[in-house]
Automatic annotation (TrEMBL):
One of its GO terms (molecular function) is metal ion binding. Keywords: ATP-binding, Cell wall biogenesis/degradation, Ligase, Nucleotide-binding. The keyword Cell inner membrane does not apply. Pfam families: Dala_Dala_lig_C (PF07478). Residues 113-325 form the ATP-grasp domain. Gene3D superfamilies: 3.40.50.20, ATP-grasp fold, A domain, ATP-grasp fold, B domain. The lineage of its organism: Bacteria, Pseudomonadati, Caldisericota/Cryosericota group, Candidatus Cryosericota, Candidatus Cryosericia. GO terms for biological process: cell wall organization. This is ATP-grasp domain-containing protein.
Amino acid sequence: MRIGITYNLSTEVATAEGIPSDRADEFDSLETVRNIEKGIIAAGHEPVRLGFGLDAIARLKRQPVDLVFNIAEGLYGRARESQMPAILDMMGIPYTFSDTLALSLALDKTMTKQVLMQHGINTPAFWSVDNPVQVETIIQSGTLKYPLFVKPSCEGSSMGINDNSRVACDDELRNQVGELLAAYPGSSILIEEFLPGREVTVGVIGNREPEVLGVMSFKLLNGTEKDFFYTPEIKHHWEKYIVPECPADLTADEYQKVRNLAVGVFKALHCRDCARIDMRFDANGEPSFMEINPLAGLAKGKSDIPVMAELMGLSYEDLIGRIIQAAVERIDAERPETTMVTEAQRATV
Ligand SMILES: Nc1ncnc2c1ncn2[C@@H]1O[C@H](COP(=O)(O)OP(=O)(O)OP(=O)(O)O)[C@@H](O)[C@H]1O
Ligand SMILES: [Mg+2]
């Protein structure tokens, strides 16, 4: 198959107007695109670089592809991750990972929690605000128990998270919300109860009956896990702070609950092919949902999914092959009359 790759490079952020500079962390490097190309070749296919937006459309018109490996984060708005998938849907071209609805929803942490609560998924009590007056309403309501955690509702890569994100009193809450509203104008801010237990991230791969790729946690190199949380500094230089551990050191019961939560979230949001679910244990020792990344980072040796795969004995190339295989099986199941690959090709993915 000819497999196109759609992506946004971190270097684009500098030239695109009105995008917070720390969003560059969300975008990809040329090295990641090259590594995905190697994975596509190793799986027996031909990679085609498409880039993003109008350029990608022009290239797709010149050079049709059978499938798109989509890692484009998109440029503007709350539904930005759906921009490339929406174009591909319009052009009738199949692509890897989740569809427009799941990608848009997952980018809004507050709305995702609302949907998941309908499915009985455990997640911290929360409020979302977009102005300081609403903070006073929350304080007066007394419905959230300190300590709380304050983060932008529609960003990733720990954007807007710093040493003051865990707040222990009304004044700290007012200050932190004020800072985020100033730093990310027009955004909504999620205030939720702080999860004091261990942090775990789970890779899920597949479709109807998805499999767990890995359940990853970490050991801290310094300090105790109590009150630890990821800031951008720790995400960037994690080797200085943590040692990833996959499979995580959990009891069989904890592992089962973590697995059920991750797969439950993946299915409830109708995710496709692969996604990463972040959770922590709550004060009752139950895993509790923080957020899902249906377009999880694929930087080799850096992002959680490739690191997790490596620790589980799956090479980067094989990981890309598994994602392509999941997409191909899904698309074949949706359109049985026009299977995408021959049996010989299938043997190579
Ligand atoms: N309710 C919470 N209680 C404790 N820590 C939290 C809570 N919410 C977020 N955190 C900490 O902040 C980090 C970033 O939060 P979260 O995963 O929700 O956002 P993100 O920036 O989108 O993450 P990613 O980089 O995975 O896309 C978490 O990994 C965790 O360490
Ligand atoms: Mg996260």
